[in-house]
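Entries read chain and fold; for instance:
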Amino acid sequence: MDKEVVAWKNKGRTIDVNGHQVFYIKEGNGPNLLILHGYPFNTFEWKSVWENLVKEYTVFTFDYLGMGFSDKPNDHDYSFHEHCEIVNFLIEFWGIEQTHILSHDLGVSIVQELLARDLASQNCFKIQSVVFMNGGLFMDSYKPRMIQRLLSQSPKPIGKLLSKLLTKKKLEKSIKSVFGPNTQPTNLLINQFWDILNYNDGKSIAYLIGRLVFDKLNHQERWISAMQNTKIPMCFINGPFDPNSGIHMANRYKELIPDPKVKLLGQDIGHWPQIEDPSGVLSYYQEFRHEIHKTSNSNALD
């Protein structure tokens, strides 16, 4: 396994959650910040912004069950409900009462479920703010890749076979298709992602996690309603070149969300902004935090 990936793994620990080992990292000082990664890799996708974030915040993150360095049960019913239950378990374990959240890809859907749970008082913590980045917030605007459709919409036996037949070359082609033209992933990053996907034979169950992409259809009405009715400050930082959830998703966000805060990165930034333009992501994130701090101070004076 690549030495940088090993170093990332060595940053963290594991904890037993309902009989499964879940990998997590806690680092830094300052206000709490929970960061949630995407599919199909893990928290390593945050490596380019990590050192800057931990200078400002106490950062908490974890690999979802079935992904990265967490356990990967191969006969398991993965769900957004379970992911949120694990979030709540870890929040309680970390002793957190409130936190800001930064999310990407699959992570944005987990946050949508957390927002819905928040309105129903079903979380054990207060969400102070939310930032979404490039993910399928609205399925009527989401454009999944063919490999996602094949892995997640095929009958399970076919999905299992396709996961088994997935090669590094096919993965590379899929990843490169959603990066910007001038920010293409290096061979090193492709190899690192391949190592992470294959850790504990994770590639063999990629189709099980991938099925969550279309499970989102079952939650859309409730999730969108939660986003429209929450009082929690929200922002969408978007890489507009992303064919999956780029400028078209940002435009849909503006149509559906009251008083929408959308921050567009350079027009050639794709699906992985925190890798393609880490300084832009950090700048926009800090800008958003300053905005909500200013608003909260203004409200306090009213």
Notes: The chain has one domain: 3-301. The CA atoms of residues 112 and 247 lie 20 Å apart.
